[in-house]
Amino acid sequence: MAPSYIQETNIQEIPLAELLSALSHALDMAGGEPAGHCVRSCWIGVHIGQEIGLCESGIWELFYTLLLKDLGCSSNAARICRLYLTDDLSFKHDFKLIDGGRAKALRFVLAHTGLKAGLAERLRTIVKVIHNASQITLELTETRCQRGAEIARKMRFPEAVAHGIQNLDEHWDGAGMPARLRGAAIPIYSRIALMAQVIDVVHTGNGVEAARREVRRRSGTWFDPQVAVAFDRIALRHEFWDTLRSNDLPQAIYALEPAQQVKTVDEDYLDDIAAAFAKVIDAKCHYTNGRCERVALFADMIADRMGFSAERRRFLKRAALLHDIGKLGVSNAILDKPGKLDPDEWTAMKMHAAHSEAILSRIAAFHVLAPIAAAHHERLDGKGYPRGLNGDQIVIETRIITTADVFDALTAYRPYRASIPISRSLAIMSESVGTAIDRDCFDALRYAMGSLDVTLAA
């Protein structure tokens, strides 16, 4: 059997803040933002919360609302690409910069719609988008906000955090979405989070004074005037900006979580978080609903047949759930393309494996899983990616995930073809045994599928 990477040792409990700060970089990718956007927004927003006098428990809830504000961001990516014929990542990044004015909104649509389409198709799409602009924006916002709130609940956060995420795009003057809430009816965490994300986007692009001007300009329309005044006081503190720009910001963020509210993550909670982020990944593509869970299930069935202990199977399942987390950094214009990818698109697609490793490597509890997850497109013959590993360089856990991933890709429905029956899928896979797929893993999968057929027929 191929060498193993996972050791049968339990993790030590780790701070929840550290874990989710690291995972928030995946949400930055999904939102088309530079790495660290959610962490920087957290730094900004918590200081605003402290400045307006939120209690300790309120700061704790605000802290996680800010880190997880983009949990639902992947859920509207495919629709953005279909509606606007565009790259969802640049669309999302630039959309945060418009202030809702009709002239700016029109310029945004013209600048982001159908740029690679033919002239006639582009014009038809622009007319359709402009004609249905309000409804489209409402549906996209509602999908993202509701999905984010649902995932926050699955991660065991209180309703206040879920509501903070769900109402992120409401505006003080009632012109926001999705519920058109106005003034104090908007949860305070949402009011702060909206302002914090705008401050980070503007500051990252144009500096401190531009961010201050933008907050003043939107005060009373987008932003709660009292919260805007609180930020203006914070903005006078040089150390606030120095830390925001510092490489030490992650450590500073951990220190913001109220001491009496510090929460650690045990094995069971870590499983829940991995499962929750799998839902973020699956939401990226409209045809991959449940894919990460299915790959994890198939991987677990293979590992069980191969005699893995319960603890090794648990570690493997987490790696399988998160193996495609790097796809959050790839545009749906590429992920959902029905035809063959061009060379540039294929290069961008292959980067998802490196993105997965980069994200998971940030997390102490997932560090050992990072190279396992990132290598699921490696091949035994050395023709895979991202590193071109071959033979015994590919550990058994990766071989299992690869086998499960290929099996799900074949048996799942795709927009351009129906799902392939299990027997036919196994026949197709058998042709790659020894070159792309490990024989022991394939035999274990085939046995597991045979046992499943017997169970279902009984």
Q: State the order of secondary-structure elements, H for helix, E for strand.
A: EHHHHHHHHHHHHHHEHHHHHHHHH
The description of the largest β-sheet is: 2 strands, antiparallel
Helix tally?
Answer: 23
Say how many strands there are: 2
- Unreliable runs: 454-458
CATH-derived topology of the largest domain? Hypothetical protein af1432
Please state the overall shape, judged from the principal axes of the Cα atoms: globular
CATH class of the largest domain: Mainly Alpha
Let me know the CATH homologous superfamily of the largest domain: Hypothetical protein af1432
Q: Report the sheet-strand fraction.
A: under 5%
Name of the CATH architecture of the largest domain? Orthogonal Bundle
Q: Spatial order of the strands in the main sheet?
A: 1-2
Share of helix, binned: 55-70%
Number of domains: 2
Quaternary organization: single chain
Give the helix/strand layout.
Blueprint: E1 14-15, H1 16-30, H2 37-51, H3 56-67, H4 77-84, H5 88-95, H6 102-112, H7 119-131, H8 133-154, H9 159-166, H10 188-206, H11 208-218, H12 225-234, H13 238-244, H14 249-256, E2 264-265, H15 267-282, H16 291-305, H17 310-322, H18 332-335, H19 343-361, H20 370-374, H21 396-411, H22 422-430, H23 439-457
Mind explaining what this structure looks like?
There is one protein chain. 62% of the residues lie in helices and 1% in strands. By secondary structure, the protein is an all-alpha fold. It has two domains: 14-74 and 139-264, Hypothetical protein af1432 (Orthogonal Bundle), CATH 1.10.3210; 267-457, Hypothetical protein af1432. Strands 1-2 form a two-stranded antiparallel sheet. Residues 454-458 have low confidence and may be disordered.
